[in-house]
Amino acid sequence: MFDREKFYRQVVELSADEANRSDRPATFHFQGRDWDLLSGVFPTLYRPSTYVSLEFLGLDEADSVGWSSMLEIGSGAGVVAVTAALAGCPRVLATDINPNAVENTARNASRHGVSSVLETAHSDLFDRVDSKQKFDLIFWNSNFIWAPPEHQITQAYEHSYFDPGYQAHRRFLRESPGWTTPSGRVLLLLSTNKADTATLFDLATDLNRELTVVKRKTFQDGSDATHSEYLLVEVSERQPR
């Protein structure tokens, strides 16, 4: 059985180590491109979730996309959002609760020449997204590690790892379907090794939401020998049966 309390304690130490590594670079090479990495932003190069996101979304080798608008929640350094724009998505909005990540995404959009189609916003989920905007794709590589409700976020990088009491996920499940176009999709990245998926699926049921696993794959997790299973989960309104 997944021990979320034990895993939380482990990640408290691990996340601080990754955020403060002495060899953390200011730029890094990833998927054939160079990227800026600002202080306090999730270190894409140490963990596989950004690559997993690209692969699951079909952006790892794509030169075109099947959607005309995208909202990324929690853009971090901006790799996914910028790659979507480079693949031809004509309207991308990248948001993050961490202001350093918002600046990082904007810098990488400028670095790769997509600032004209990629907008950034400092936002806690949908708080600062124009209510008139709708999107073909909403994607969140979420902070799926459960933390106790009393956990206090004191460092910007913690937003990339922890969701105290899964309150952010509760909000995302409740609000996200309201921001899609009629044929739009809401996709959420999780890991069965790291997230309390049972609680998240129960939350979805309580909120009248359906969670459907559309992709799953096991990846080596970082430079150690461990492996993690990742899921791409579609969020939709539960239909009467």
Automatic annotation (TrEMBL):
The keyword Transcription is assigned to this record: no
Stored InterPro entries: Euk-Arch_PrmC-MTase, SAM-dependent_MTases_sf
Pfam families with a match to the protein in the record: PrmA (PF06325)
Listed name of the protein: Methyltransferase small
UniProt entry tagged with the keyword Ligase: no
Keywords assigned: Methyltransferase, S-adenosyl-L-methionine, Transferase
CDD domains reported for this sequence: AdoMet_MTases
GO molecular function: protein methyltransferase activity; S-adenosylmethionine-dependent methyltransferase activity
GO biological process: methylation
SUPFAM superfamilies: S-adenosyl-L-methionine-dependent methyltransferases (SSF53335)
GO CC annotation: eRF1 methyltransferase complex
